[in-house]
Specification:
Blueprint: H1 2-7, E1 20-24, E2 27-30, E3 35-38, H2 41-44, H3 53-65, H4 77-89, E4 96-101, H5 104-119, E5 123-127, H6 136-141, H7 145-149, E6 159-162, H8 167-170, H9 175-189, E7 195-200, H10 216-227, E8 230-234, E9 258-261, E10 272-277, H11 278-281, H12 297-312, H13 315-331, E11 338-344, E12 347-352, H14 362-374, E13 377-378, E14 380-382, E15 388-391, H15 399-415
Parallel strand pairs: 3-13, 5-6, 5-7, 7-8, 8-9
Antiparallel strand pairs: 1-2, 2-3, 4-10, 9-10, 11-12, 12-15, 14-15
The protein binds pyridoxal-5'-phosphate.
Pyridoxal-5'-phosphate binds at residues 103-105, 108, 131-133, 201, 205-206, 234, 236-237, 262.
Organism: Actinoplanes couchii
GO molecular function, one term: transaminase activity
InterPro entries: 4NH2But_aminotransferase_bac, Aminotrans_3, Aminotrans_3_PPA_site, Class-III_PLP-dep_AT, PyrdxlP-dep_Trfase, PyrdxlP-dep_Trfase_major, PyrdxlP-dep_Trfase_small
C-alpha cells in the first residue's frame, strides 16, 4: 500500500487495502494468503469466475498465436464470432450488427455516435441516478457529482436528464405512469424532433440497483419507436446472465434498438460492444467506427469462452438460484433500517435508511461494508445517496460460500445497532 500511495495517482482509489494474488470461484486470495469471499466480481465483471478454465485455455491459445493485428488493418475470426454471438443472444430477432470496443464508456459513446449518425439529430436523454461511465461524454450522462464529475467539467452538450422510475422513493408502482411523467418532460423540454437517443440502464447499477416499475421500459421503448428516437439499453452491468436473464431487457420483452455491453462479456478481459438494428448500426460511414484495440483477439477469445460457459453451464438459471438464496437470507434479517431489498438474479441490494424511516443512511452502509471487509467478505456500496449495499457474486460461487458471506453480513449489521 505504501508503494501504491507513492506510485499511483491519488485519484485512483481502492475499496480495500488488500492485494490480490489469485482469484476464482468466489474467493480472492491475497498476498498474505488470506481468503476473502467475493461478492463484488470486480464490479460485475467476473461472472464466470476470475480464472475460469475455459477462459484461461482460450486466452492461452490465442496469446500464443498472436496478441494483436488491429481488426481495422487485418481482421481475424474471433471478432466476427463475438459479433455473431451478440447478434444471436441480444433481445429481438431483427437483423443486427455489432461493433467492438474496449470499455463500457467507450461503447456508450459509440452508441451515441451511431444514433446521431442515423437520426441526424443531436440530443440525448438520460435519467436521474444514471451511470454511463467516466469519459467526458459519459460523465455528462452520469448523474452523480462526487466522486465522478466533481471538478472535471465542462461536460459535453446536448445531454438532458429526466426523472426515471424508483419505486421505493417515488412511490409510483405503475411503470406506465412513471414513463408518462418522463415522456412529458422529454416532449416539453427537448422534443422528439431534436432527440437522437434515449439511453437507459434496464436496472440502474451505480445509482443504487434500482429496478424500474414494471411497464416503464416497454412504454419508453414504444414511444421511441413511434417518434424516431433510438432506444439504447446500457446493459454494461446487467448483461450476460447477471440479472437472471441473458439480458435485463429480456424480462419485459423489450428489444432495444441498440444494446451496449461490457463488464461480464469476457471473463475479466477488457471488451465492450454495441449491438443493434442493422440499419442503425450501418449509418456511420466506413472508417467512422473503430479504435486501435477494439475487439482485441485475446479479449474476443475470452468472450467466446465466457459466453460458452454461460450457455453450457446454465448460468442464467444459476443467477436465479442465487437470487432465491440471497433474498431469503436478506428477508430473514429483522432490522427496520433495511428500507428496501431489491434487484434480480445475482444483482441484488439492500437500501439502508434511518430506523423505521426512509432517510438514507450512507454511514451505516459504510460501517457494515467495513465490518464485512474485516471479516473477509468483499461487499460494495453504491447509490446516489451512498446507502446501498450491493451484492454481485460470480455466478460460479457455491451456496456454502454465499451462506457464509451472509452470516457475516447479518452479524455486521447486527453489530452496528
Ligand atoms: C460500469 C458501467 C459503465 C462504464 O463501463 P467502463 O468499462 O467502466 O467504462 C457504463 N454503464 C454502466 C451501466 C456501467 O455499470
Amino acid at each position: 500500500m505504501a508503494r501504491k500511495v507513492s506510485a499511483v495517482a491519488g485519484g485512483v482509489g481502492t475499496t480495500m487495502p488488500v492485494f490480490a494474488a489469485a482469484a476464482d470461484g468466489g474467493i480472492i486470495v491475497d498476498v498474505d494468503g488470506n481468503q476473502l469471499i467475493d461478492l463484488g466480481s470486480g464490479i460485475a465483471v467476473t461472472t464466470v469466475g476470475a480464472a475460469n478454465p475455459r477462459v484461461v485455455a482460450a486466452v492461452t491459445e490465442q496469446v500464443a498465436a498472436f496478441t494483436h493485428t488491429c481488426f481495422m488493418v487485418t481482421p481475424y475470426d474471433g471478432y466476427v464470432a463475438v459479433a455473431e454471438a451478440l447478434n444471436r443472444l441480444t433481445p429481438g430477432d431483427h437483423d443486427k450488427r455489432t461493433a467492438l470496443f474496449n470499455s463500457g464508456a467507450e461503447a456508450v459513446e459509440n452508441a451515441v455516435k451511431i444514433a446521431r449518425a442515423y437520426t441526424k439529430k443531436d440530443a440525448v436523454v438520460v435519467f436521474d441516478h444514471a451511470y454511463h461511465g467516466r469519459t467526458n461524454l459519459t460523465l455528462a450522462m452520469t448523474a452523480k457529482n462526487k466522486p465522478y464529475k466533481h471538478t472535471f467539467g465542462p461536460f459535453a452538450p446536448e445531454v438532458y436528464r429526466v426523472g426515471g422510475s424508483y419505486p421505493y422513493r417515488d412511490n409510483e408502482r405503475d411503470g406506465a405512469v412513471a414513463a408518462a411523467r418522463a415522456l412529458d418532460q422529454i416532449e416539453k423540454q427537448i422534443g422528439a424532433d431534436n432527440l437522437a437517443a434515449l439511453v437507459i440502464e434496464p436496472v440502474q447499477g451505480e445509482g443504487g440497483f434500482i429496478e424500474p416499475a414494471p411497464g416503464f421500459l416497454p412504454a419508453l421503448a414504444a414511444w421511441c419507436r413511434d417518434n424516431g428516437v433510438v432506444f439504447v439499453a446500457d446493459e454494461v452491468q446487467t448483461g450476460f446472465a447477471r440479472t437472471g436473464d441473458m439480458f435485463a431487457s429480456d424480462r419485459e420483452g423489450v428489444a432495444p434498438d441498440l444494446i451496449v455491453t461490457a463488464k461480464g462479456i469476457a471473463g475479466g478481459l477488457p471488451l465492450s460492444a454495441v449491438t443493434g438494428r442493422a440499419e442503425i448500426m450501418s449509418a456511420p460511414h466506413e472508417g467512422g467506427l473503430g479504435g486501435t484495440y477494439g475487439g482485441n483477439p485475446i479479449a474476443c477469445a475470452a468472450a467466446l469462452a465466457a459466453i460458452e460457459t454461460i450457455e453450457q453451464d446454465g448460468l442464467v438459471e444459476r443467477a436465479r438460484e442465487i437470487e432465491t438464496l440471497v433474498k431469503a437470507r436478506l428477508g430473514n434479517i429483522e432490522d427496520d433500517r433495511i428500507g428496501d431489498i431489491r434487484g434480480r438474479g445475482a444483482m441484488l441490494a439492500v437500501e439502508l435508511v434511518n430506523s423505521g424511516g426512509t432517510e438514507p443512511d450512507p454511514q451505516l452502509a459504510k460501517d457494515v461494508a467495513k465490518a464485512a471487509h474485516a471479516q473477509g467478505v468483499i461487499v460494495l456500496t453504491c447509490g446516489t445517496y451512498g446507502n446501498v449495499l450491493r451484492f454481485l457474486p460470480p455466478l460460479t460461487i457455491s451456496d456454502a460460500l454465499l451462506d457464509d458471506a451472509f452470516d457475516v453480513l447479518a452479524a455486521a449489521l447486527e453489530a452496528t445497532r
